[in-house]
Design goal:
Largest sheet: 2 strands, antiparallel
Number of domains: 2
Helix content: 40-55%
Number of strands: 6
Order of helices and strands: EEEHEHHHHHHHHEE
Oligomer: single chain
Distance between the termini: 48 Å
Low-confidence stretches: 1-16, 18-36, 199-203
Structural class: mainly alpha
């Protein structure tokens, strides 16, 4: 039976890969045995051979958070399974649906008309997709959201979590003092009056 796990991150619904306990979806003991009997090479050792992992699909949404939440699980799957760049590309390209699939087919045709090499690398595909689905203004937008973030009716824990998520998504390197100043600027004044805060890089902690 397939179990689908969904999580909420930064207000977005994220679909995690399906995990089964039966067999690997891209290799099996029987295929490996027949390959060896034919004199073929033994495939790389797969520690996750007994766990079936189904990569998520991407439909071409223009929401950059949803795009990143598609790319990151794929990277973890390919790393865990030990797939090379070409095999990772083939699997990822099969997971493009709707607009993303149309976009990819158009890219292939345009490259053929321009005399460019076929795409056969996951890193190359990611680079092209970053240009299409991750706006140049993304990091600046994240920085602005963090700068304008206020605690208001959020609990301290909720505010810290939201601030941390924006900090991680933006991946902007800045002095710790600047990060701390932005964090304190968004806190409710009543909380600032009765608490002492300190920054333990890169996490913000507090003590009453």
């Amino acid at each position: 039976m397939t179990t689908q796990v969904t999580t909420l991150q930064g207000g977005q619904r994220t679909q995690e890969p399906h995990v089964h306990g039966d067999k690997d979806d891209y290799s099996s003991d029987s295929s490996m045995g027949s390959n060896l009997r034919r004199g073929g090479r033994r495939p790389p050792n797969d520690e996750f051979r007994d766990i079936k992992v189904e990569p998520p699909e991407f439909n071409g949404t223009l929401n950059p958070v949803e795009f990143l939440e598609w790319v990151q699980p794929l990277d973890r799957i390919f790393e865990a399974k030990g797939y090379d760049d070409e095999k990772s590309f083939k699997i990822a390209s099969l997971k493009l649906t709707r607009y993303a699939s149309l976009w990819f087919e158009n890219v292939k045709k345009q490259r053929a008309r321009d005399g460019k090499r076929k795409i056969n690398s996951w890193e190359k595909l990611k680079s092209l997709m970053n240009k299409r689905f991750l706006p140049k203004s993304y990091k600046q937008d994240i920085y602005n959201r963090r700068f304008l973030l206020k605690q208001n009716n959020m609990s301290l824990g909720e505010y810290m979590r939201e601030f941390e998520q924006l900090l991680l998504r933006g991946a902007i390197h800045e002095p710790q003092e600047q990060t701390m100043a932005q964090f304190l600027n968004g806190l409710n004044p009543s909380l600032l009056e009765r608490s002492n805060f300190k920054l333990i890089s890169p996490w913000i902690m507090f003590s009453s």
